[in-house]
Amino acid sequence: MSTPQISVSQSAQAHIKSQVEQTQSRYLRLGVKESGCNGFMYILDFLEEIEPGDHLVPVSDHVTVCINENDLALVDGTEIDMVTQGLNSALIFKNSNATSYCGCGESFALIDDADAPEGTASDLATDATQPN
After folding, report:
1. Which residue has the higher pLDDT, 62 or 69?
2. What are the φ and ψ backbone dihedral angles of 45, each rounded to 5 degrees?
3. Contact, 90 vs 128, CB < 8 A?
4. In the chain, count of helices (H) and strands (E)?
5. How many CB atoms lie within 10 A of CB 89?
6. Looking at residue 112, what is its pLDDT?
7. Which CATH architecture does the domain made up of 7-126 adopt?
8. Domain boundaries defined on the chain
9. Is the pLDDT of residue 5 over 80?
10. Each residue of 30-64: b (16+ CB within 10 Å) or e?
């Protein structure tokens, strides 16, 4: 698969840039793992160096997202935004390929999942500052 299409809002770019600087990293890894009650969950990690099989997706002059080749198809079409509600801020992920999200908003199912229940996709929120 070629490099996936992801989009990152200006506010999310600013947040990611700040987190990369604070952790003295170079890249944000965007990935997924099988988890939750609906199939997959986004995971984030900060990296100093890329690993074999990683694809770099430049988002801006200051933000580069790293995606492992095993996760390329799963994150393709993802939109990342930063939302602040009161004192809480969180990165919000919208995956155009998701067919449903669990009630708690932590996991999602994909179109290709044979067991995915039909439903309307909604926002998936994950706080990038919390451990996975």
Report:
1. 69
2. -150, 155
3. yes
4. 2, 10
5. 14
6. 54
7. Sandwich (2.60)
8. 7-126
9. yes
10. bbbeeebebbbbbebebbeeeeeeebebebeeebb
